[in-house]
Amino acid sequence: MAGVEALRTVDLHKRFGGIRALDGVSISIRDGEFVGLIGPNGSGKTTLFNVISGIYRPDKGDVYLYGEKVTGLPPHELYRLGLVRGFQVPRLWHRMTVVENDATAARDRKGSGPLAALLRRSEWLSWERSSLAKRVVDVLHRLSLARVALNRASELSGGQMKLTDISRALMGEARVLLLDEPTAGVAPRLAQDLFKVLERLNREGLTIFVIEHRLEVLFNHVERVIVMHEGRVLTEGPPEKVAEDPRVLDAYLGSV
Ligand SMILES: Nc1ncnc2c1ncn2[C@@H]1O[C@H](COP(=O)(O)OP(=O)(O)OP(=O)(O)O)[C@@H](O)[C@H]1O
Predict the structure, then answer these.
(1) Closest atom of ligand 1 relative to the 213 alpha carbon
(2) Which atom of ligand 1 is nearest to the CA of 43?
(3) Contacts of 75 (CB under 8 A, 6+ apart)
(4) Per-residue pLDDT tens over the stretch 86-134
(5) Separation of 22 CA from ligand 1 center, angstroms?
(6) What is the pTM of this model?
(7) Which parts of the chain are coiled coil (predicted)?
(8) Where does residue 185 fall: left (phi above 0), alpha (psi -120 to 50 degrees), or beta otherwise?
(9) CATH number of the domain residue 218 falls in
């Protein structure tokens, strides 16, 4: 689907009292792209994600998902349409295993809510034959989580928790994945590994838009970087171009 636009924002504005967190943000992301969002602290990145993912309503402007206007739709509606957000602090069921966390994130199960997946013992006895199980196994392999599939979430490392959070998003059949600092709290080597997994998911067709402070990791993996400063898009382009842009350096230094 080359050239299809996955996500577009048009002139988004969002104020908090006197602070213009978003001051006219227009961006466009093609289907299948892997894009990074950077900018100094307080430049509006998380607010942009919150508006795109339906947590905040913009004061002005619109959000489009695959050409459809979705401004102000609540997160669960956007989730149904394929837009999924991972969180800085993964939202996991700590006493459940990785498999169970993924199973409860599945959607479109006929005649059952997510928790019913756990309650039907008979189904679990033949679980390897069910399509739900196939999906869980597939997602675990794609995210290199098969080894810890039967560990409780509370026993996972920081990086594995992030991956499990992402795996839950994929159980919802995400088309566009928003990630806010996936490597926060993750050891440097594992941060590279995590981005390698993201790169693989992207090659398989997932559109990924990621906020990341570790530029040395981000720049190795994404195709394009959007830079925000004071609630606006300062510049955008391939990582090597953005890295050399003196305005980007100025924005970071100015915020120190
Ligand atoms: N819920 C809120 N209430 C009041 N002010 C807010 C709120 N959310 C964000 N802001 C303010 O809006 C501005 C943009 O914040 P935002 O968190 O979007 O920036 P950011 O680029 O994600 O920063 P960081 O890199 O530190 O996470 C900041 O001045 C912040 O203090």
Answers:
(1) 25
(2) 21
(3) 53, 54, 55, 85
(4) 766 667 888 889 988 888 887 544 444 555 555 555 555 555 456 777 8
(5) 9
(6) 0.86
(7) none
(8) left
(9) 3.40.50.300
- Is 28 exposed, middle or buried (CB count within 10 Å of its CB: 0-12, 13-18, 19+)? middle
Strands (E), the chain: 5-16, 19-30, 34-38, 60-65, 68-69, 83-86, 176-180, 207-211, 224-229, 232-237
Q: What's the structural domain count of the chain?
A: 1
Q: Which domain holds residue 178?
A: 5-254
Which residue's structure tokens are 């459940």? 96
Distance CA(194)–CA(1), nearest Å, equals 26
Cβ–ligand 1 distance for 44 under 6 Å, the answer yes
Q: What percent of the chain has pLDDT over 70?
A: 88
Q: What is the mean pLDDT of residues 146-156?
A: 92
3-state secondary structure of 24: strand
Q: In the numeric block, which tokens belong to residue 151?
A: 């560990």
